[in-house]
Amino acid sequence: MIIGIPKEIKVKEDRVAITPNGVKTLTKQGNKILIEKNAGIGSGFCDDDYKQAGAVICNSAEEIYNEAEMILKVKEPQPSEYKLLKKNQILFTYLHLAVEKSLTKELTDKKITGIAYETIETKDGKLPLLIPMSEVAGKMSVQIAANLLENRNGGSGILLGGIAGVSAGKVVIIGAGSVGINAAKIAVGMGANVSIVDVNTDKLRQADNMFGSKIKTYMSNEENLKELTKEADALICAVLIPGYKAPCIITEEMVKNMKKGSVIVDVSIDQGGIVETIDQITTLDNPYYEKYGVIHYSVANIPGSVAKTSTVALTNETIKYVKNIAEYGLIDAIKNDYSLAKGVNTYNGKLTNKGVALALNMEYTELPSLIGF
Ligand SMILES: NC(=O)c1ccc[n+]([C@@H]2O[C@H](COP(=O)([O-])OP(=O)(O)OC[C@H]3O[C@@H](n4cnc5c(N)ncnc54)[C@H](O)[C@@H]3O)[C@@H](O)[C@H]2O)c1
Is any atom of ligand 1 closer than 6 Å to the C-beta of 265? Predict the structure, then answer.
């Protein structure tokens, strides 16, 4: 199979879809790998590393999109990339289509098989391609909040870990999944006063078993959120309902009642976010703004700023799906693999993810009815 890897063009996105080691695995399998010049630079991999692994270096994204049967990316195609996508191509990347109506139309109009990393799901409900980036974003979120709390950034001047004789800052984490638990690891490690909120008691139980008396756990409901947001120095938002738009559970009123100079890091912004006062996705080079005296951070590609760790972690998880598609062909690979089938959001002009269809008010078609399984 001819597999193309363009350079990412989202602002300050330094990840790349594959490491040189990943390329070696795919070329050994007999595939032709086209990679755009300097695509790996931000992740610490130069063109020579890819050449030695067997890839062909291309000077432009156009060359790659023109020739490749499958495009491997990190972030969803940006509007300037739409015209490059070719009819019937396979696109394997994070898509987050629930908040990307024009991209969804582009993919269905061109009959592109859009396979979203974030909706690949194992039978026991795990999201293997989301987990590593969630681990990164979770750990980064507290680092980011600690930084924004510094006076020079407009924060309240609170050191999250506190010191002898001065209390620690309060970190409230909403969502006890991969992002939330990793945020808690860092916040607890810093010595902050940590609370975790979820709607799922099993998730709260797991957090309680993991951290014991170092955290407090709360059921996610309006009353608890009202109280917890009032006290928070850093509010980390880490909610997910897979495939669906995130629920808006932090209201404008709650934000107005937060402490001046406190910080919200809405990691769930890639699915629309959970904060009423966050109406924009910010970028890594202009990542935050202030509203009602509260700093709002809403970057949708946080792992892009620790690109080396993230690129290696991503390739570790994506490579087996790429290998299977190349070896068995798209249809058989999907038929043989429940998780991969869950990743297919668009196929042959149809929208095949229920959550996305609901969020975008578009027609949903079951994938098995299209490819017969
Ligand atoms: N901004 C970024 O750069 C970035 C990077 C990685 C992940 N993410 C996003 O972060 C979000 C969280 O990802 P994750 O891997 O931790 O998901 P996850 O599925 O592991 O965890 C989500 C948690 O949210 C909980 N939840 C659902 N509804 C809730 C509610 N109303 N109140 C409280 N909790 C609720 C679930 O029970 C679950 O425990 C996703 O949207 C993901 O795409 C963003």
Answer: no
Q: Are residues 217 and 282 in the same domain?
A: yes
Residues 100 and 146 in one domain: no
How confident is the model over 319-353, as pLDDT tens digits?
999 999 999 999 999 999 999 999 999 999 999 99
Predicted confidence (pLDDT) per residue in 110-120, tens digit: 999 999 999 99
96 annotated active-site: yes
Same domain, 299 and 176: yes
Ligand 1 in reach of 271 Cβ (< 6 A): yes
Domain that holds residue 200: 131-305
Residue nearest to atom 7 of ligand 1 (CA): 134
- The single residue of 14, 96, 233, 266 carrying the catalytic annotation is 96
- Atom number in ligand 1 closest to CA 197: 33
Give me the helices (H) in the chain, please: 20-28, 47-52, 61-67, 79-82, 101-109, 131-148, 178-190, 201-211, 222-231, 252-256, 307-328, 330-336, 338-343, 354-360, 367-371
> How confident is the model over 259-300, as pLDDT tens digits?
999 999 999 999 899 999 998 999 999 999 999 999 999 999
| CATH number of the domain encompassing residue 232 | 3.40.50.720
